[in-house]
Amino acid sequence: MRLSKSFIPTLKELPSDAVIPSHILMLRTGMVRMLSAGIYSFLPLGYKVIKKIADIIREEMDAIGGQEFHLPALNPKEIWEETNRVEAFGDTMFHVKNRDYVLAPTHEEIMAFHAKGVLKSYKDLPQIWYQIQTKFRNEPRPRSGVIRGRQFLMKDSYSFDSTWENLDKSYELHDQAYRKIFDRCGLKYFVVGASSGAMGGSKSEEFMVRSEAGEDTVAFCESCGYAANVEVAASVIASITRHGNSKSVYEIHTPDVKSIDELCEFLKIDQRETAKSRIYIHNEKPVLVLMSGNDDVNETKLAKVLPGNLRPGHPDELKTITGADAGSIGPLEFKHRIIADLRLQDGNNLYSGANKNDYHVGGIDLQRDLPNVEYFDLRTVESGEGCPQCNSKLEVFKAIELGHIFKLGTKYSDALGVNFLDEKGEAHPVIMGSYGIGVERVAACYLEQNHDEYGIIWQKPLNPFDIHLIALNLKNVEMEKAGDDLYENLQSEGFEVLYDDRKDATAGFKFNDADLLGMPVQIILGEKNYKNGKIELKNRRTGEKQIVEFNKIIETIKKIL
RNA sequence: CGGGGCGUAGCGUAGUCCGGUUAGCGCGCCUGCUUUGGGAGCAGGAGGUCGCAGGUUCAAAUCCUGCCGCCCCGACCA
Prior knowledge:
Elements: H1 21-28, E1 32-36, E2 39-42, H2 44-63, E3 66-68, E4 74-76, H3 77-82, H4 85-89, E5 94-95, E6 101-103, H5 108-115, E7 127-136, E8 151-161, H6 164-184, E9 190-193, E10 204-210, E11 216-221, E12 227-229, E13 250-253, H7 260-267, E14 275-282, E15 285-292, H8 299-305, E16 310-312, H9 315-322, E17 337-341, E18 350-353, E19 359-364, H10 366-369, E20 374-376, E21 394-409, H11 411-416, E22 419-421, E23 427-429, E24 431-438, H12 439-449, E25 451-452, E26 455-456, E27 467-471, H13 477-492, E28 497-500, H14 507-517, E29 521-525, H15 527-531, E30 534-539, E31 545-549, H16 553-560
Parallel strand pairs: 3-7, 15-17, 17-20, 27-28, 27-29
Antiparallel strand pairs: 1-2, 4-6, 5-6, 7-8, 8-24, 9-10, 10-21, 11-12, 11-21, 13-19, 14-15, 14-16, 18-19, 21-24, 22-23, 25-26, 29-30, 30-31
Helix pairs in contact: 1-12, 2-6, 2-12
The structure holds one RNA strand of 78 nucleotides.
């Protein structure tokens, strides 16, 4: 590709809307342009990368027996109503105004629709069907460039099996395929167990990449590889100390003391001597959730303990329920259910709110004063706590979800009546799995992990070109000829070459563009070296430059690639 | 949806508080000449519904009202 004729609009200045490196780099290198919030056009360079990622995915999906479909994005709403997912998706689903269609946010229903009546016998199973297509979700807040968009490219596949054991096999095939895909893309990733959320189904795992731009928070153990979404992560921590002597309960005047930090400062105590109260409304009834110090209530864990309708109490409800505002609420005299985090179990000499504004109480003994409290693991783990598997230190950080594999079960086949006949002629719902990869996220994560202050550092196999050929002094006809010849030769050797043949750009301009665009090998064709039969090559990743004989070009390139 | 910020030429921005020249600057773009190993120099030039609509005023980028859009934090998130 000749740069003089190609549409690769690079930006010298930082785009003001972009914050994270991948977004900035995609804009600066002319890979994408935004059309509207969360809606991006892929320009030729960006699309080239997307196609390379999609090809890798295709190869690995085909290798496990996957068959590629091309499905409609426009779906009759009726099908989605059969599985009750119009309601489940709510405002996240795009609705077409002038016909009863929706824009598909995923494709379980449509794949199941096609399976119905066609996968009739156990002999037809298993099947793995996949597609690489655009999905639509009306995200309330798109962000981080292509990482969270309202329209995005997703590889989703669906497995259809006759037994749960076979589903395990399909799931395992995907697990292995996903590892190969992300390995081939050169990503540093890890796998976490996750809750299945609104998709329904049992087991699920997420493929994650560590990034400040991530929307998930995970706990990770370097030494044993334990990884879990912080929503479900456990940790080993010391319980609070039970003192030999239990003081009796006494009231303390604490004007303007609201937070645990303020309370600790006011009383010169450690946060572990305090118990924080949060009021939740569970199936219309108040529940007090007691935590040690500033420990965070983990609402996912809480929801498991309190199934059904659950929400935090509104500030204006708190006074009616407890007699005090947030900041002065406590467990003593609380007239409804109280549950507490395990860390607090059997604690004594604790400080908490007095259910009277501007007052706290000390000397609480949970055994003595609140014998009916129920204890559960309710806290959110934090960095530095012990790994539940090996007791090494856990690290908690943000991560981007690249892929997610689910054992769906029969939720969709039940709802849509996708049945097969077993050996005995009995009908059963087909057992499904569902497996997604965010294709643009793969590109974004690659950039997050492979850049420096000058720009992108591409390496095989995602690099849009192998070689960035920079020809200088092009107004010299001899040099122009040399550049053109080299360009042709490199291509005939099978390399993908981006040829900077611009006559009006200065050398420095070209060098900086090359570093920004980041092809693995830069070849600099300059007059002086050329006259000595030599040429300069630069390794973008290491920055190493070498001047070689013209006839050594190919072997040198192959070493770098 | 809550909180905060922003919207002025393709990009980045000044001016807005306190209304008053022809809306300024850098980059980019066009023409010419000179340059050509780390984002060139000189000269000339094009390019603006100041987000949109309404209002106040002799006068609005600037003040008021409504709306739209974008970014960040939060809520939400198969």
